[in-house]
Amino acid sequence: MGCLSSNLTKRRLVLLLSLLLHLNPSLAYSLKNCNIEYSQDPLADVVLDCVQHKVVTVPDDIPRDVSSVKLDNNLIEQINRKDFGNLSKLRFLGLNFNYIAHIDDESFIHLTSLTILHMHFNKLTKLTGNLFRGLSNLTMLDLGLNEIQFIHKSAFSFLPSLQTVILYNNKLQQAADIQPVLQLPHLQKLVIGSNLFTSFHTKDLLLNVPSGLQVLDISYNVKLENFSITTPIFPHLEMIDFSGCGEHTGLNWDIPDKNLLRNIIQLYFNLALIPFKDFQKVLESLDSLMHLRLNNMEKLITKGLLATVCKIPTLRRLELYYNHDANLSAKLVTCSQLSDLDLSTTHMTELSNGSIRSMQRLRSLNLEVNFLTNVPGEIRSLSSLTILNLSDNLLSTLGCEDFMNMKHLTHLDLSKNRIATLDGCAFENLNDLKVLDLSDNLLWTFGDAFKTGPPMLEFLDLSKNFVSLLERGDFQGLGSLTYLDVVSKKIGRVKHKAFEGLMNLGNLRVSLPLEYENNFRELQQLENLTVYFNTDGIFKSPLENDHKSFYHLKSLKVFTLICEGYHFGFPFDVPMYMFQAMKHLEGFTADNVYIAAPDRNTFQYNPQLKNLTIRETDLSDLDPELFLPIPNLQVLDLSYSKLSSLDFLAEADLYELRHLTLTNNELTVINETVFHYLPALIYLDLDNNPFICDCSNAGFIQWVKSNNQTQVVNTYKYMCSFPVAEQGNKLLDFDIQSCWMDYGFLCFITSTCLVVLTLLSSFIYHFLRWQLAYAFHLFLAFLYDSRKRRKGAPHRYDAFISYNVHDEDWVYREMLPVLEGEQGWTLCLHHRDFQPGKPIIENITDAIYSSRKTICVISRHYLQSEWCSREIQMASFRLFDEQKDVLILLFLEEIPARQLSPYYRMRKLVKRRTYLSWPQAGQHTGVFWQNVRRALETGDAPTETTDPLTGPAGC
Ligand SMILES: *[C@@H]1O[C@H](CO)[C@@H](O)[C@H](O)[C@H]1NC(C)=O
Ligand SMILES: *[C@@H]1O[C@H](CO)[C@@H](O)[C@H](O)[C@H]1NC(C)=O
Ligand SMILES: *[C@@H]1O[C@H](CO)[C@@H](O)[C@H](O)[C@H]1NC(C)=O
Ligand SMILES: *[C@@H]1O[C@H](CO)[C@@H](O)[C@H](O)[C@H]1NC(C)=O
Predict the structure, then answer these.
(1) Which of 92, 168, 208, 705 has the smallest count of CB within 10 Å of its CB?
(2) Residue-wise DSSP of 411-460
(3) Residue 37 carries which DSSP code?
C-alpha cells in the first residue's frame, strides 16, 4: 500500500517536472487551415504548412515565431497590408500557384528577415514602386509564370541583398524593362526566359556601374531576333542560357568584341535557329567555354556542328540529349578532350566503332534512356571512367568483358533493363566500385556475381527483381557493403547464412517468406533492418520460433516489420526475447504483423525506444503497461488499429511523447482529460475516425480550439459520422455553445437568485431595519467593551438589575431592601440610575459594563419586552466575550421550557447555566437571598458546574 502511494507520488512528480520542462507555449496549437510541421528537434525552426488547403486569404492565425510559411497551391487572390504584419522571423515564404493579382504596397514591410520569396504561377501584371519595401534581407525572388508587363523603376530599390531574380514566363518586352533589376548591387542570377523580348541590346541599358551578373537565362524568348552585347556591362557573366531562342525566327548575334564574353564558361542551346556560320563564329570566339549543352539541334549537327564543337580546346562537358540521331556518336570522334558526356535520350542502339574510345579523359558517361542491347564494346577501354549510367536500356545479359577495364569505375547504374542473368565474373574487375544499381531487372538469382566482390562496394540495390531464393554465401564477397536492398515480391526461400560475409552491413531491406530459416547472426553491424513478409495473398501461418532470427542483432537501431497479406499471427511466443539483444533500439515499426496487442513485456529490454509504430493490428485490448519500460518514447503511431478509447494513455506514463498518430481508428468520443497525461505532446493526428458530433465531444472540441500546446493537425477535415443528422458536417463546426445549455440554465438560476437576494435585502432593510440598528449597536458594544477593558476601569455597581416595568413593584419591595439594605450591594436600576438625555441603548451598555454582574429578573412580561431580551443578549455577549460569568438569571415565575423556546437565546442560556427561581423558594426567602448573595460574591470565572440552586433543568 505504501509502495503504491509512493509510486503514485513519484509519477506525479515526474509529470510535474516534465510539464515544467516541456512547456513551450509558442510552438504549437491547432490552426484553422494549416499544420505546423513536426520536427524531432524541439529547437528546430517552425515551419507552417498550408499547401493545398483551399485557403482564400492569408490565414490570420499564423504564429508569430514561424520561420517558414508554405501557402502554395491555394486560392489566394490578393495580399493585404496587414496579412504579414509582425512575422519578423519569417525567412521563407511560398505563395506559388495561387491567383494573386494584387498586392497592397508595403505588404511585406515587416518581413525584415525574409530571404526567399516564391510567387510563381500567379496573376501579377505590374510591380509597383513600394511593393517590396522592407525586404532588406531578401536574396531570392521568384516571380515566374505571372503576367508582369511593367516594373516600376524603384520596385527593386528596397532589395539591397537580392541575388537571384526569376521573371521567367511573363510579358516583358524590352531590355529596358529589366533595368531596375540590373541595378541591384548584388545581382548574380537573372532569369528572363519565356518573355516577349524581340531584341536584347545592351546599349539600351544605362547602368552607372557594371552589373555583377553571372548567370543570364534568356531561354525560350521565341520572338528574340537580335541579341547584342556591345557595351561592357556584364564583365562577370559566366553563363548564358539561350535554349529555345529564335526558335521560330532565327537569332542574330552581335558581339563584335569577343573580350566582352571572355568569362563565359557555360552555354545552353536548345532548338535554336541560328545560322550555322554565326554559330560557328560565336563558338570559336569563346576562349573559356567548358560546358556546352546542345539539345534538339539535329539540324545543325547534321551540318557538322560537332566538328566545330570538338575543336574548342577548353571544352570538358558536352550534353547532347534529345538529339534523335542514331549516328550521333560517330560525330564525336575528335572530342578527345571531354571528361563528361551526356548522350541520354538520343534513340541510340549502339555506339559506333571508334567514336568515343579516344576520350581517354572521360570520367562520366550518361547513356540513359536509349535502345542499347549490350554494354557497348566502345566503352570497354575507357579506363578513366568513374560514373557510367546505362539505366533504362534493353540490356539482357552482362558478360565477363563488359566492364573489364573500368578499373576506376565507382558508380554503375544498370537499373530498368532486362538483365536476367549475371556472369560470375561480370563485376570482377571493378575494384573501385562503390555504388551498383541493378534494381528493376529480370534477375531470379545472383549466381556467383557477389561471391568474390566487388570488394569496395558500399551500396547495392537489387530490388524489383524476381529473386525467389537467397543461398548461403550469396553476398560473401561484399565485405564493404553498408546498404543492401533485396526486396523481392517473389521470394520463396532465404537459406541459412544467406548474409554471411556482410560484416559492415548497416542497412538491410529484405523480403522473407513466412517459412524463413535464416538467422541474422552474422550481421553484427546492422543498424537498420526492414523486413517484408510475403504471404502471396493467401492465409498462412508462420513457423514457430521464427523470431529467433532476430536474437543476435545487437546493433539494431531501427527495426521495421511489414507484412503484406493475410496471416494468422506471428508466434513471437516469448515476445521480449525477440528484442532482448537490441539494447540500442530506437525505432520499431510493426505493420500488419501483430494480430492483437503485443504482450506487455515486449519492450522490456529496449529503454531507448523513441519511435513506435504498430499499425493494422487489433489494439482494442491494449495494455498500458506495454509502455512502462519505454519512457523515452517520442513518436507513437497506432493507426488502423481498432482503438475505440484513449483511456490507456492515462496509465502509460508517456511523459516524453511529442508526436501521436491515431488515424483510421474507431474513436467516436475523445475525453480530452487524457491529454493531461501527455505533457510533451505537440502533434496529434486523429484523421479518419468516426467522430460523434454531439455534446459528448464538446470538451474535446473546446480543447482542440483553445489549448496552446498541442497542435491537432488537419482538424478542419474531421467529419461527423454520428448522429445521422450531422453526417457530412465537420466536427469543428459543431455548435458546442448549445452544450453549455445546462450551464446556461445554471446561469439563469444564479442570476434569478441574485435578483431575489437583492429584493430580499431591500425588504429586510425596510422591515427589519430596527434589528439591523441593534446589531450595529451590539457591534458598538463590542468596541466599547474593548476600550473599557483596555482602560481596566473599576466597576461602579455590583449589579445591574434588568427587569420589566411590570415587575418593578417586586424589585422595589422585595429585592432592593434585601440586596441594598441587608447585604449592602450597590445596584444599578434603570429608572433610578440611567442618565437622562442619553440614548437608552448607550445607557444600557454603560450600565452593563460598569456593573460586575447583571441580574435578569425574568417574568413573562420580561421575555416579551424587547428591551430586556436585548439586555440579556448584551450581557451574554459580554459573558462570551470576556469569558466572565456576569449573568445571574432570576426567575420570578415558573416558565415551562416550551414557552421559552421563542426566546432561543434565553433557552440556550438556561440550558447551559444554573439559575435562581423565586416561586420555588416558596417560604424560604432567606435561603433564596443567600443564594443571590453567593452568586453576586462569586468570582468572575464562569461557573458552569456550581449549582447555586436547584431548579428545573431547562429542557
Ligand atoms: C539580415 O541578414 C544579415 C546577414 O545574413 C543578418 O545579420 C541580419 O540579422 C538580418 N537582418 C534581419 C532583420 O534579420
Ligand atoms: C539507418 O537509417 C537512418 C535513416 O532512417 C540513417 O540516417 C542511418 O544512417 C542508417 N544507418 C545505417 C548504418 O545505414
Ligand atoms: C522517428 O520519427 C520521426 C518523425 O517521423 C523521424 O523524423 C525520425 O527519423 C524517427 N527516428 C527513428 C529512430 O526512427
Ligand atoms: C474523462 O476522464 C476522466 C479521468 O481521466 C474522468 O474522471 C472523467 O469522468 C472522464 N469524462 C468523461 C466525460 O467520461
Answers:
(1) 208
(2) EEE--SS---EE-TTTTTT-TT--EEE--SS--S--TTTTTS--TT--EE
(3) P
Q: Counting ligands in written order, which one lies closest to the CA of residue 670?
A: 4
DSSP H helix total and E strand total for the chain:
19, 47
> What's the whole-number mean pLDDT along residues 748-767?
70
- Looking at residue 727, its amino acid is Q
| Residue 115 alpha carbon to ligand 1 centre in Å | 9
SS3 content of the chain, % helix, strand, coil (to 5): 25, 15, 55
Q: Is the pLDDT of residue 772 over 70?
A: no
Residue carrying the nine cell digits 525574409: 114
What is the per-residue pLDDT across 623-678, written as a single tens digit (0 to 9) for each? 999 999 999 999 999 999 999 999 999 999 999 999 999 999 999 999 999 999 99
- Segment 700-714 shows an average pLDDT of 88
pLDDT band at residue 725 under the 50/70/90 scheme: confident
Kindly state the average pLDDT of the residues 223-228. Answer: 87
Query: Which ligand 4 atom sits closest to the C-alpha of 650?
Result: 5
3-state secondary structure of 912: helix
Q: Where are the beta strands (DSSP E) in 763-917?
A: 797-802, 827-829, 851-858, 887-891, 916-917
Q: How far does residue 89's CA lie from ligand 3's centre (Å)?
A: 27
ω into residue 723 within 30 of 0, thus cis? yes
Which residue, chain included where needed, has cell 484553422? 32
Ligand nearest to the CA of 458: 2
- Over the stretch 366-389, which tens digit does the pLDDT of each residue have? 999 999 999 998 888 888 999 999
Which domains can be identified in the chain, with CATH numbers?
A: 50-171 (3.80.10.10), 190-274 (no CATH), 619-740 (3.80.10.10), 744-788 (no CATH), 797-937 (3.40.50.10140)
Place 765 in a pLDDT band, splitting at 50, 70 and 90.
low
Closest CA to 293 of 263, 313, 271, 311: 271
Phi-psi region of 261 (alpha: psi -120 to 50; beta: other; left: phi over 0): alpha
Question: For 327-352, how does the pLDDT look when each residue is reduced to its tens digit (9 = 90+)?
Answer: 888 888 889 999 999 999 999 998 88
Rounded distance, CA 471 to CA 446, Å?
Answer: 9
**Out of 40-54, 319-333, 520-534, 833-847, least confident range:** 833-847
Protein residues with CB under 6 Å of any ligand 2 atom: 482, 506-507, 527-528, 558
Q: Is 694 helix (H, G, I), strand (E, B) or coil?
A: coil
Give 730 Cα–ligand 1 centroid separation in angstroms. 43
Residue linked to cell 519565356: 194
Mean pLDDT of 248-268: 82
Q: How remote is the CA of residue 178 from the centroid of ligand 2, in Å?
A: 48
Nearest Cα neighbor of 636 from 695, 678, 582 is 678
- Ligand 1, atom nearest to 136 Cα: 1
DSSP 726-782: GTTSBGGGS-GGGGGHHHHHHHHHHHHHHHHHHHHHHHHHHHSHHHHHHHHHHHHHH
Whether 112 lines ligand 1, by a CB cut-off of 6 Å, is yes
Rounded to the nearest 10 degrees, what angle do helices 866-882 and 840-849 cross at?
40
Cβ partners under 8 Å of residue 895, min gap 6: 858, 859, 860, 863
Residue 614 CB partners (closer than 8 Å, separation 6+): 589, 590, 594, 597, 598, 637, 638, 641
Using alpha carbons, select from 669, 728, 724 the residue that is nearest to residue 700: 669
Q: What is the pTM of this model?
A: 0.73
List Cβ neighbours of 881 (8 Å cut-off, separation of 6 or more).
Answer: 782, 785
- Ligand 3 centre distance from Cα of residue 682 (Å): 15
- pLDDT averaged over every residue in the chain: 84
Predicted pLDDT at 776: 62
